[in-house]
Amino acid sequence: MSSTLRYLHHPASQPCRAVQQFLLEIEVPFEEEIIDIMSGINELQDFKDSHNPTGQVPILIDGDFTVWESAAIAFYLNEKFNAPSNWFGANAEQRARIQQYLHWHSTTLRRGAGAFFYSNFAECIWGKRDYSKEIEKGHMVLRESMGILEGWLSKTEYVCGDEISFADLQGVHEFVSHKAGRVISDSQWAEFPNVKRWFDMLTARPHAKTVSATIIEVGKIRARGELIPMTRKTSLAKGTEVVGSGTLGIPYFETA
Ligand SMILES: N[C@@H](CCC(=O)N[C@@H](CS)C(=O)NCC(=O)O)C(=O)O
After folding, report:
1. How far does residue 61's CA lie from ligand 1's centre (Å)?
2. Taking residues 38-65, what's their average pLDDT?
3. How high is the pLDDT of residue 253?
4. Going by CA atoms, what residue is nearest to atom 1 of ligand 1?
5. Which CATH code is given to the segment(s) 5-80?
6. d(CA 28, ligand 1 centre) in Å
7. Measured CA distances, 84 to 23, 27, 89, 90, 205 (Å)
8. Rounded to 5, what percent of the chain is helix, strand, coil?
9. Which residues of the chain does CATH 1.20.1050.10 include?
10. Which CATH number fits domain 92-255: 1.10.3720.10, 1.10.340.30, 1.20.1050.10, 3.40.50.300?
11. Is the pLDDT of residue 233 over 90?
12. More confident call, 222 vs 237
């Protein structure tokens, strides 16, 4: 007997959007539950005990089975619903390429999210402060990552070959936030023409547009100088700070 999948997520989150788009692309029905990470409800011990010890989203619940970490969720969906082979690879080499991307992604491009978080959300949590070191760190990681992506994308249409895979979704949603938050200037984009070509191609997909609508709106609000209401006092991009122990949920500015 199959139960309805529960997908716990937040539309401002890059890995959440990647998985949500994957669910839509492979046409798997799900019930969505938005977890208000702007309030920090996800950091409550109850939430961690029942859903994810890291307190992060996305999370997938399939009956008695709960899985978190976006790449693992997508892998599970791919296996369980026998998704078309382009998404996770048709043979050992393609599967390895996609895994290679996903591991690379989580330690590089994903870390560049600090450039978005500290230029768009930090002020909403801690007020106006000097976030330049964190923003600079994010930009450094982002620039290095874009260089690697440019190399891949100069040879193939998509990051892992000539067909779209989950790697593309994982990658492109980092850039959707950067674009929404005006993180990457036109001159930076011009240095990486293949990344730009790929970004434009991926974001033209109807499901990419659906899952990105909220963050684009959030970007417009911030561009007007208005704040997004956030009642939490901790970082929601843990691990991207320069000083502090964000992974323990300790507010950076009180521990620095
Ligand atoms: N490696 C994780 C990262 C998940 C992640 O960074 N989630 C963020 C949103 S983008 C989150 O839940 N932040 C809330 C918090 O840390 O309190 C994945 O790919 O699923």
Report:
1. 16
2. 96
3. 54
4. 69
5. 3.40.30.10
6. 23
7. 12, 11, 9, 9, 17
8. 55, 10, 35
9. 92-255
10. 1.20.1050.10
11. no
12. 222
